[in-house]
Design a protein that fits this description.
This protein is an alpha/beta fold. The protein has seven helices and seven strands, in the order βαββαβαββαβααα.
């Protein structure tokens, strides 16, 4: 069977946070996996993982370790390791954007040039580009509000831009997106696990007033990415 020319690289790091947010990375990672499943068939899926057991991911995904001491070293190292396997296009996504959709992934996989998903904080949640363009990612002001602007300034042609989406980097981001995360927990993990994944009322002040748990209607987890 011929290998696809494109690889989707899921950059997944579990940061060891505790308390009410201890299971948040798992919720986000499963939602991301479901979204990137849309690209399978036209692309391989590779997870650059740190802190997740290999068995956490769908068996169709290939898992590689992250390496390096900085975000840039880990991120570019993962993309370089995958590109070295002969792929001509890379679509990189993190696990911190719960609004990522299957349509976002399909557009990036099917695109020819650079496809970027802007984050509302000035970064990007998705980058699809030919492997010959990976050098443009080196030396960017990573983890700042300037990274998207800096990358666009380096490109020889305007990128295709997806819908701007919010990511989850800090506890206040989780508060802002709590309703969305609750829906994701029910959809992807099932109602039975929800009580262990989402903060209780008053736990670290993270559950906003009026966000009540549903009294019934369990949802079975779908078969999935």
């Amino acid at each position: 069977m011929t290998r696809p020319a494109t690889a989707i690289v899921v950059f997944a790091r579990r940061d060891g946070r505790g308390g009410a947010l201890r299971r948040l990375p798992e919720v986000l990672a499963r939602a991301t996996a479901a979204a990137v499943e849309a690209g399978r068939g036209e692309a391989d899926v590779v997870v650059a993982s740190d802190g997740f057991p290999d068995r956490f991911w769908p068996s169709a995904f290939r898992v590689i370790p992250q390496r390096g001491d900085t975000f840039e070293a880990r991120f570019l190292g993962a993309l370089g390791d995958v590109a070295a396997q002969g792929y001509r296009r890379i679509v990189a996504v993190g696990i911190d954007t719960p609004g990522l959709t299957r349509a976002d992934v399909r557009r990036a996989v099917e695109g020819d040039g650079v496809v970027l998903g802007p984050s509302v904080d000035g970064g990007f949640y998705l980058a699809g580009l030919p492997t010959s363009e990976l050098g443009r990612l080196e030396g960017l002001p990573w983890c700042t509000a300037r990274v998207l602007t800096a990358l666009r300034a380096r490109l020889s042609a305007p990128p295709t831009l997806l819908v701007a989406r919010a990511d989850v980097d800090r506890p206040r981001d989780a508060l802002r997106l709590a309703a969305l995360l609750e829906r994701l927990a029910r959809r992807h993990l099932g109602r039975a696990l929800q009580d262990n994944l989402l903060p209780e009322a008053g736990a670290s002040g993270l559950r906003p007033p009026g966000l009540a748990r549903p009294a019934h209607r369990a949802h079975a987890p779908p078969a999935h990415a």
